[in-house]
Design brief:
By secondary structure, the chain is mainly beta. The protein is built from 3 helices and 13 strands; from the N terminus they run αββββαβββββββαββ. The N terminus is likely disordered.
Length: 214
Amino acid sequence: MRTISTILFSFFLLSCNNNERGIKIEWTDNLRGDFSFTEQWDYPEGILLNDFAQLVCDGLCDERTYKMRDEEGKIFNDSIDKYYQLTDTTHLYHTTVGEAQCYEWAGTNFARAYKGENDTILCYTECNAATHSSLELRIIENKCFARIKLNSITDIGEEYFDSKGGYIKIEKQLWKKGILKAEFDIDFIHPDNIGIPMWWNGKIYTKIENYKPI
């Protein structure tokens, strides 16, 4: 997971390189639609249910946990309490839903938002093992500047695709309370193949970190 400082630096570059016209935000008192995705949750990536109905870490785990399981993967009875002190099994509630046509994208359930400098709000969707494209939004007053950041697993490495149009709606009352509730449908410039559209649409409902409610 990227650090906050990395995210902010990335967005400062965005402020220089993105289409400065931006997308005009449609503010609404009550953003209707199905936001029931916020009731769904996942365990952190790498947490699985083993054959003994135990939640175990299978990925980037604390090295000490490997000694707490037998050859079949079962946690020793006398190690269960310690195992779960070292293993994060938090319920992570979904904060975004949507569809996208872009590179190396297989879906994402999580978006995070931060308050940056000069009343700028920064938001990005999280990547995972199968998804390497992230939607990044920079919101300043009544404008939203968007791009897709691809962190490819191929030799391409990092690549950026700026927005060229679309819409975004944000609920004003929740915004004042430090919550980003939004619906969007954004098109992006696709210089690699202008014949294939690149787009991202969906919804976001997430707390704006470091935001002081009005």
